[in-house]
Amino acid sequence: MDIDAWVWWLIGAAGLGIGLVITAMPELGMLAVGAVAAAVVSALGGDAVFQVLVFAAVSVALIAVVRPIAARHGAQRPRLATGIDALKGRQAVVLERVDGNGGRIKLAGEVWSARSLNTELTYDVGQEVDVVDIDGATAIVM
To answer: Cα(63)–Cα(68) distance, rounded to whole angstroms?
Structure first.
């Protein structure tokens, strides 16, 4: 029983695909695509040298193009701020006088403990303040 070369390429692609799933290395997926391309060349009657060249060219091209794009995408911060990061930079209304020792504000519909960033400044009831940081359960305002 003689197995055609394109079947071997597909077996190799399947093995690389399994390796991709097990290790989560995207390069293995790109090599698997190269193996599928070589299988197509083999099925169309291309010789062994041309099959290997297609495998190498497709694999290298994918790695050279896709990896930098994936690296840039992975390095981006999420655009949607959540948790305390979403509260920084928002405005709040003073409910109880806020100074360097403390006070109360209404921030995002909730009552928060607050203190002034500059301990010499005070904010009176009804004033709008900007939240610059969150320290535990206390908003730092200015």
So the answer is: 8
